[in-house]
TrEMBL record:
Residues 24-158 form the HTH marR-type domain. The lineage of its organism: Bacteria, Pseudomonadati, Pseudomonadota, Betaproteobacteria, Burkholderiales. Pfam families: MarR_2 (PF12802). Keywords: DNA-binding, Transcription, Transcription regulation. The keyword Transcription applies. This is DNA-binding MarR family transcriptional regulator. It comes from the Bacteria. Coiled coil: none annotated. InterPro entries: HTH_MarR-typ, MarR/SlyA-like, Tscrpt_reg_MarR-type_CS, WH-like_DNA-bd_sf, WH_DNA-bd_sf. PROSITE patterns: HTH_MARR_1 (PS01117), HTH_MARR_2 (PS50995). GO terms for molecular function: DNA binding; DNA-binding transcription factor activity. It comes from Sphaerotilus montanus. GO terms for biological process: response to stress.
């Protein structure tokens, strides 16, 4: 029994599932457990290797994908955080020399945030290692399994989007 408890602690969210639970509950708990475990690993590695946080990494990743910069409200939507959180992150990253605020030529009331050359270089190093960490995590799975999982999760995402757009009362 003690061994089962240790296994339950290792499984985290998934340990909550019972044998007679509905399959939908089991699937949700397994997805949550996998996502949480991967996220914790990435958070630990970013902190240990680069002294940074996952929100800062995500912020820089969004700007890397948008070389012309983003307005603060767009950053907030992409990052799914409040405007106040984006403002705080922006202030920190400006202070660290990784991003800069530029006047928005399309809207004089706004500004765009872009990566500085230092921010671009720092993010490139982080992103390369981040990709290696994910490759290590998923390395034990055969390519065909990863491909199938990717496609199945895509189907799930489409189904969820359709269901959430048209919820049943």
């Amino acid at each position: 029994m003690g061994n089962d408890r240790a296994n339950d602690e290792h499984l985290g969210h998934e340990a909550r599932a019972q044998g007679d639970d509905h399959l939908d509950v089991k699937v949700w708990l397994r997805l949550l457990a996998c996502s949480t475990e991967i996220e914790q690993y990435i958070r630990q590695r970013l902190r240990a290797r680069f002294g940074t946080t996952l929100p800062r990494f995500d912020y820089l990743a969004q700007l890397e994908r948008h070389p012309d910069g983003l307005r603060m409200n767009a950053l907030s939507r992409y990052l799914m955080v409040t405007g106040g959180n984006v403002t705080g992150l922006t202030d920190q990253l400006v202070k660290d020399g990784l991003v800069e605020r530029l006047d928005d030529l399309e809207d004089r009331r706004s500004y765009r945030v872009t990566l500085t050359p230092q921010g671009r270089a720092d993010f490139a190093r982080m992103a390369a290692e981040h990709e290696q960490w994910l490759t290590e995590l998923f390395g034990g799975l055969p390519g065909a399994d990863k491909d199938a999982l990717y496609h199945q999760l895509g189907h799930l995402r489409q189904h969820l989007n359709a269901t959430l757009r048209n919820p049943t009362p």
